[in-house]
Amino acid sequence: MATIKRIKQIMNFEKEGVVSAWYSTVDYASIPDSYFEEDENGLDQWARNFLIPEYDPENMETNGAEKNSLPVIDIIGPCSYSYSYGEAIKNKIEKLGDKKISWLILLFDYEYRPKKSKIFEDEYVKFVGAFPYSMTAGSITEI
């Protein structure tokens, strides 16, 4: 129990106005259900892998393709407030070498810092970065 409390103190990355993004090129259907199952603390394997001790599920958004992959902008575009951060995420993913992705995880009001956690990716997702966002921005597909 003391370990979880210590991790919460060290890894508290909550920050208003910032969205942290992770993406995958792995076909969503091929990821085991266990990756998304929550433990007794309400955390799924993704959160545990990235040493995220807690987050508000209301601040999480995911989007992706049921099968295969799509151009990055097609997955980011419909997401909330994407007009304020979508291009930056798209450019960073493409800089990492991926033109198409299968799905995306967004955690709003959270500034994940892999330099502190030392975890940039797991077997299914890669951390893209933390980007400012505006709640007054629409989605790219609305504009």
TrEMBL record:
Pfam families: DUF4284 (PF14112). It comes from Amphritea balenae. This is Uncharacterized protein. It comes from the Bacteria.
